[in-house]
Amino acid sequence: MAERLGAILRALQITEIEYSLSGGGDSGETTLERVTYRNDPLAHDLPDIPIFIGDRGEIRHLPELLGNIVADAPEGDWVNNEGGYGSVYVRPFEGEEALTIDCDMSYREDGDYPSCPASSP
Q1: CA-CA distance, 95 to 60, in Å (whole number)?
Q2: Please, which residues have CB within 8 angstroms of residue 57's CB and are 6 or more apart in sequence?
């Protein structure tokens, strides 16, 4: 799925997407902060375009699918117990075919959290 989304984001000329993550107490929130296009440095929304139809006939849209990938990107449990917070950056043009996802996360005390990988395909 990440490879397909990377191709779609490149076709849309999106160079970077920034999300903020905040979690704790068994819940978490991902918030789209910024979408940057190649020839337009102003921030924009992510286009709400259908990507594919799921097994049960539901239409899956770009913002939902990308939000799920972003929520799963940080290593460690940023949602449960004391949780964590930070930013996740999606950069479709940095990798050859897959999305480049960079995490900048901080985890609150009293948690068993490994650090986020510098980059993941």
Answers
A1: 24
A2: none
DSSP string, 12-78: TTEEEEEEEEEEETTEEEEEEEEEEETTEEEEEPPP--EEEE-TTSPEEEHHHHHHHHHHH-SSS-S
- Comparing 52-56, 61-65, 68-72, 73-77, the range with the smallest average pLDDT is 73-77
Q: Looking at residue 65, what is its pLDDT? A: 92
CA distance 10 to 69: 17
d(CA 49, CA 63): 8
Maximum Cα interatomic distance, the chain, rounded to a whole number of Å: 44
* Tens digits of residue pLDDT in 95-121: 777 789 999 988 877 655 454 554 444
**Domains of the chain, residue spans:** 2-107
pTM, two decimals, is 0.81
Dihedral sign computed on CA atoms, order 4, 6, 11, 12 = positive
